Amino acid sequence: LQVFLVEKAGRRSLFLAGLMGMLISAVAMTVGLVLLSQFAWMSYVSMVAIFLFVIFFEVGPGPIPWFIVAELFSQGPRPTAIAVAGFCNWACNFIVGMCFQYIADLCGPYVFVIFAALLLVFFLFAYFKVPETKGKSFEEIAAVFRRKKLQAKAMIELENLRGSEEA
Predict the structure, then answer these.
(1) Could you tell me if 33 and 87 lie in one domain?
(2) Which of 35, 72, 73, 90 is most solvent-facing, going by the fewest CB within 10 Å?
(3) Could you tell me the mean pLDDT of each successive run of 10 residues in the chain, 167 residues long?
(4) Could you give the CA distance from residue 65 to residue 57 in angstroms, rounded to a whole number?
(5) In 3-state terms, what secondary structure has residue 140?
(6) What's the pLDDT score for residue 77?
């Protein structure tokens, strides 16, 4: 099902939607936990937020990075890139799994604020840096990165020229 959804909606848009959904769910979990002592029904808000968090993960950040990593690299470095991505994924899962209880004890009901902040950073990074790879060849994707690199270089040179004119 995910493969058909990815081909229809696009990798980047699903990834961004998943990150934003997870961010909203993390905020809802925080609100639910903070207000649980005042409103008993907040436990249902927290449960729904957890289910939505998982659903949004499965729509975006769960599978999409594997598609994008496979499409961002040419045949030569692709296995290494996928291995590095897999290692980072499992290392972060391990760290979160091992540290969550300690962080929860330290932060109390605000534990998911950390996740919300990280999700916001990931969303902004993906929004500004991750290209859409749907229907594009490796050469087209590489051309997008080259164009961005040349634009950045031109902006730096323009700033240097302005700085030398003022001096």
Answers:
(1) yes
(2) 90
(3) 72 90 97 94 95 93 82 84 90 94 95 96 92 71 69 71 66
(4) 11
(5) helix
(6) 86
Copy the structure tokens of residue 137: 């060849």
| Structural domain for 141, as ranges | 136-166
Q: Which amino acid, one-letter code, is at 48? A: V
Tell me the C-alpha distance between 113 and 127, whole Å. Answer: 21
10 Å Cβ neighbour count for 103? Answer: 14
Q: Do residues 144 and 74 share a domain? A: no
The reported pLDDT for the residue numbered 98 is 97
Any residues with CB less than 8 A from the CB of 18 and at least 6 apart, and which? 56, 57, 58, 59, 60, 61, 62, 64
Judgement on whether residues 79 and 103 belong to the same structural domain of the protein: yes
Q: Which residue has the tokens 């045949």?
A: 75
For the chain, the domain total comes to 2
Q: What is the CATH number of the domain that holds 91?
A: 1.20.1250.20
